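protien #1 (seq + structre)
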Amino acid sequence: MKILYICTHNRCRSILSEAITNHFAQGVIEAKSAGSQPVGEVHPLSLTYLKEAGISTQGLQSQSWDEFEDFAADIVITVCDSAAAETCPVWFGNSLKIHWGLSDPSKLDGSDEEKADAFRACIEQIKQRVLNLKTLAAKKLSTAELKAELEALGAK
């Protein structure tokens, strides 16, 4: 199964989702991430807290969704509300589209400890979704069944 995570700037939540999915669903799911308006750099705290969690940051980069036309994602998951509202490229047409809203820990204006807690909570939320997603990937679900299960995971 191939998943493309989308966030407008592709610097935090979609990057976290890509790295966590590839770490915990290795061999079952291949994940990439991209943005509609990528900023060109990964948020430094995304890298810090992924490393803290023991998750590889190798190869992570902020990039445009235009670079993934040939990736042929089975599922496209938006992780920020603004990306969910955007008009997707026509080549997403064959992919199942799901929205898994996540709070943006990089936008928190607080102490270093509050920021750390926000990143750790976001990473844990993504991890739980990915572990459930890995279980779903092993099942032989119809497209409608898979969509319903994915939407339920995104509500958690």
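ok now protien #2
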Amino acid sequence: MAKHVAKYSGAELKPDILRRPRKTVPLKQFNRSERFAILENAFEINPDKMQDIRERNLVLIDDVITPGVTLSAAAKTLQQAGAGDISVLVLARVTENA
């Protein structure tokens, strides 16, 4: 999905800025606060891409957002690395009553 967004918007695609140095458990069975705890420090910045972050406006793209904890953790990591504005683009949202 991100490839198509980049292609048709003219934006640069940088899929390797963030990385997940450790595996995390599937989050389905956990509540929101437990999910935040599990994803604490789950992402890190690829050191070779630090120059692609500082003061740059970025868009995080994901296919589905459930409570948004993963995207929030990713955005927090980017903010701490000095990113400018961070927007999120998702294809679908899962609600509690769905």
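The mean pLDDT is 90.
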